[in-house]
Design goal:
Length: 121
């Protein structure tokens, strides 16, 4: 009887642990909750201007900056960095891009909400 109770408890515990791991996907990054009152954002209408201002001086083909990944002059050039969560992590979460700072919190919030909405083009 004791063995049956211990076995059942162990199975339930393993099941509970496996469920908790389901929500911890490393490749499913989450930024802060979108707090903009009207987050109707798209790459073309809003985000491209921010990227042009802060990112393409380094993230453009032929920029001459050593070790920089990605050509952000087009949406397609940024897409892999959006898909893998790097853009969200570096610009919104860690705030270490752009190097040297300068990007406003409002611009970071716009990027966060745009990514949370699935980064519409």
């Amino acid at each position: 009887m004791k063995l049956k109770i211990i076995t059942s408890a162990s199975v339930l515990m393993l099941f509970a642990i496996s469920l908790s791991w389901q929500g911890c996907k490393k490749d499913d990054p989450k930024g802060p909750e979108c707090t903009l009152s009207n987050p109707d954002l798209s790459y073309t209408k809003n985000i491209k201007a921010i990227v042009d201002q802060w990112c393409i001086s380094c993230h453009a083909q032929g920029s001459g900056v050593q070790g920089v990944v990605g050509d952000f002059t087009t949406f397609e050039g940024m897409k892999s960095r959006l898909d893998n969560g790097t853009m969200l992590d570096r610009v919104v979460v860690r705030k270490d891009m752009p190097e040297g700072g300068g990007m406003s919190q409002g611009q970071r919030d716009s990027i966060n909400c745009w990514i949370a909405a699935g980064y519409p083009k």
